[in-house]
Design a protein that fits this description.
By secondary structure, the protein is of the alpha+beta class. A 6-stranded antiparallel beta sheet has the order 15-16-18-17-19-22. Helix 3 packs across helix 4, helix 6 packs antiparallel against helix 8 and helix 7 packs antiparallel against helix 8. It has 4 domains: 133 residues, ibrinogen binding protein from staphylococcus aureus fold (Roll), CATH 2.30.310; 72 residues, no CATH class; 103 residues; 111 residues, no CATH class. Helix content is 33%, strand content 24%. A hairpin with a 3-residue loop joins strand 6 and strand 7.
Length: 483
């Protein structure tokens, strides 16, 4: 969800406390749509302004490298560096902030300039002004009907007919939508929260909250929500840069989706071929009808025939269709089971992708070859060693070739993940450490309590015919562990 005016008001208070009275020392562009301002007083403080169309926001941040350049960056550096930021003010309850900078010139004396941030989705902008005259802007615009953003023009905020919300008037609004339409600063979600709870939002305590489908400066009392110490910390999580998707992960996704389509196709064909018996029945009736088998008919008992063929030829064709459809049922059922096993294999790889040995996974996805797996992970404790597989081949090698029959085998219950082998002293410490390593190298690594099963490797058997490495086991015990 985008930032609304009330969120921006609370965020402005937080940023004001951190940077007002500080001098602007550096300006960088981490990417083509963002600017990082380094303020300094007793120590550096960094303010990030992101103008991306899908994530426009500002927040206190860490330092970033300068990766881009632009004419507007040069204008800001020329006119704002070493100036003192005296205050940041919000335009009413709108999504507009004005940063007032004061610098000294030996000839001109004190110079006041404003950097204006408009957070308006794809129209988000930074505009540099002096005495309310535009000097430069990140996005320059010209329009004959709407406002223009061009040098030497007066700056005007977006026009609006909305007023300022007053809690004493809350009874005058007929719905959350009415409140949203009449008052500045509200997103529809916030308007609904205020209207339904009849809240005095101006006096509502700040509680930066992330919930399943959004976030806000206030606690909306949703399920599965998380609170943060500051709004900037909340925004750093909401707008966390996305890691580039690994080509290998994309390949696995492609194979996974291919199996879904394949299973759907096989099941449709299986359903269609269930009517195989009718073809034999029609052919049998043709032969028992007493008709001239050398004659040509276009239909028989309502079933269309090929008029170019004799009755005998049509009957033989129907027997072939019958046999083909009947024989296909077993084949299709086998292919469905095989594809479902492959689907499980690729899903397990996707779920556990972060824990896999990617170089070995690349080899595993290639045509089979007899090659010894690459080195697995080994933990050395006091009088014991723990070996952790990070691919199907490593798991199989550890469990069925490397380990001894009385070694202990560990695996997270009901999830994909590493096969872990404990060798040496078996005690509470070694068992808990082996279970912890199994939990850490599984999709359950972020859970607070993970059930890990363990048994002797002599009781672990491979399931033949399935892709990857899947096993059955018996005589297992369980332990719950916090990764």
């Amino acid at each position: 969800m985008p930032l609304d005016g009330y969120f921006l008001e609370k965020l402005n208070h937080e940023i004001n406390e951190a940077v007002s009275g500080h001098f602007l020392r550096k300006i960088k562009m981490p990417n083509a749509r963002s600017f990082l301002f380094e303020f300094y007083k007793s120590k550096p403080v960094y303010l990030l302004i992101d103008l991306s169309s899908n994530s426009p926001h500002l927040r206190l941040a860490d330092d970033f490298e300068n990766n881009e350049d632009s004419p507007f960056l040069k204008s800001m550096r020329r006119l704002l560096l070493n100036a003192k930021l005296t205050k940041i003010s919000q335009v009413k309850k709108d999504r507009i902030l004005k940063f007032l900078f004061i610098s000294s010139d030996p000839f001109l004396g004190e110079i006041k300039r404003e950097l204006i941030l408009e957070i308006m989705g794809r129209n988000s902008n930074l505009i540099l002004t002096e005495k309310n005259i535009i000097i430069d802007a990140y996005l320059k615009r010209f329009s004959e009907t709407n406002r223009s953003i061009l040098p030497k023009l007066s700056y005007e905020p977006f026009p609006t007919n909305k007023g300022i919300f007053n809690y004493e008037d809350i009874h005058t609004y007929t719905s959350a939508k009415d409140l949203f339409n009449q008052c500045m600063g509200f997103s529809m979600e916030l308007a609904t929260f205020v209207y339904e709870q009849q809240l005095d939002i101006d006096n509502e305590p700040i509680k930066p909250t992330l919930y399943e489908n959004g976030f806000h400066a206030f606690d909306f009392n949703r399920e599965n929500q998380k609170h943060f110490e500051s709004l900037s910390e909340l925004l750093s999580v909401v707008y966390k840069p996305k890691e580039p998707v690994s080509p290998l992960y994309k390949q696995l996704e492609k194979e996974y989706k291919k199996r879904i389509d394949r299973i759907k196709h096989f099941k449709q064909e299986l359903e269609t071929n269930q009517d195989f018996d009718q073809y034999k029945q029609i052919a049998d009736q043709i032969y028992s009808s007493g008709l001239d088998l050398g004659a040509h008919h276009s239909e028989y008992l309502g079933y269309s025939l090929d008029h170019r063929k004799t009755l005998n030829e049509n009957a033989q064709r129907l027997y072939k269709i019958y046999k083909k459809k009947k024989d296909s049922l077993e084949h299709l059922s086998t292919q469905i089971l095989k594809s479902e096993d492959e689907l499980t294999y690729y899903k397990d790889l996707l779920d556990n992708f972060d824990n896999l040995d990617l170089s070995e996974l690349k080899d595993e996805l290639k045509p089979p070859k007899k090659a010894k797996p690459k080195q697995h992970y080994t933990f050395v404790g006091e009088n014991f060693k723990i070996h952790v597989g990070k691919s199907s081949r490593q798991n199989e090698y550890l469990t069925h070739h490397f380990s001894k029959p009385d070694d202990l085998w560990f695996h997270v219950k009901d999830y994909s993940g590493a096969h872990v082998i404990l060798q040496g002293d078996v005690n509470e410490t070694s068992i808990r450490k082996a279970a912890q390593l199994a939990a850490i190298h599984s999709p359950q690594k972020l859970s607070s309590s993970v059930e890990v099963i363990y048994t002797k490797t002599r009781f672990v058997k491979k399931i033949k015919g399935r892709p990857g490495f899947y096993v059955t086991f018996k005589h297992e015990k369980s332990i719950f562990i916090d990764p």
